[in-house]
Amino acid sequence: MNTAVAAPHTSSDITTRLDAAIDSALNEARIVGAVVLVARDGEPVYHRAAGWADREHRVAMRDDSLFRLASLTKSIVSTAALALVEQGRLSLHIPLAELMPEFTPRLPNGQTATITAHHLLTHTAGFSYGFFEPADGPYHRAGISDGLDAPGWGMAEQLQRIASVPLFFAPGTAWRYSIGTDVLGALIARVTGQTLPDAIAALVTGPLAMHDTAFSVRDRSRLATAYADATPAGSPPVRMGEHTIVPFIDPALAGIAFAPGRVFDPASFPSGGGGMVGGATDFLRFLESIRNDNGVISPPMSQALRSNQTGDLLIDVRGPGWGFGYGGAVLLDPAAAASPQSPGTWQWGGAYGHSWFVDPLERLSVIALTNTAVEGTAGRFATDIRDAVYGV
Description:
Helix content: 25-40%
Number of helices: 13
Radius of gyration: 20 Å
Strand content: 15-25%
Number of strands: 16
CATH superfamily of the domain at 3-69 and 278-390: DD-peptidase/beta-lactamase superfamily
Distance between the termini: 28 Å
Shape: globular
CATH architecture of the domain at 3-69 and 278-390: 3-Layer(aba) Sandwich
CATH topology of the domain at 3-69 and 278-390: Beta-lactamase
Largest sheet: 9 strands, antiparallel
Order of helices and strands: EHEEEEHHHHHHHEEEEEHHEEHEEEEHH
Mean pLDDT: 95
């Protein structure tokens, strides 16, 4: 049920600490299974699959298990958008209205808002997510999908619903995590004249040989079953059903709506913010291409991707000391953030239970994929993995 793979540069200390963090999460029933991969200079120094991919059917987690990536999708889609910018097919600052005239979001006063690709990439467009509001909030009343459930409609319908709700603020004036990357996916499809899955395959996953990463499941036998945090805390995680709502941040909010079967539903739009499936090895290849400035975008654009693009706007889901680049948060002040990571660390996660970060000064890429929402991304597990890497 557990495998630990040694590599030429394995540190016995980091192995001991990471094993302890993973074993603790499994023994305390905070997660069901995980794949954790740590690389320095692109070489794995720790790679372990632990726990169950499917607890009820006693299927062990494997090194090559596949996961619903949720918001790990965002960094891949963001990179595709920047590749289009470099090809001269998209501008970061052209108004969306010039490319998608049918999409007309408005401010609360009814005024049409000027939204750009830069706003979508940085979550400064004025959109939101339904899980940040009560169950009777405006996104729920409009039936807007967060991209993790299964509404059964296409992107045109999703865009119409998004545009029917006033923006939360004027574009560029604040930061709010949002469905903006779904809109970015629609923009990519419009600019390329392809479906979003075909565009991402052509721009990112194909060139990087990420053969397991797509908006569909390449091998269902390797797909990890999705689980949710149990109530009360301390109880074993529960297997997700056809539709599962998991509390997130505040019990007064609606919670995150998951439909694990969405990935098999061709009628649902491909979510640029959360719709891909993949594994740890593929995602390491992607992260390393950005860390090394040696991927599908130029070194200056790669550096822009992982540099703060939001000035001093508060990144509220991270707190003090953080900014936001194109597709992930950027650590500006480790002391303010109470983090052992180096300044310039680029990181994010995924609601199905994932976290990742790239520390450029330590030359580290760290990926922790679990099949347990939301402990794997917003619970103790992600912090324990981070601290084990640094020995704090």
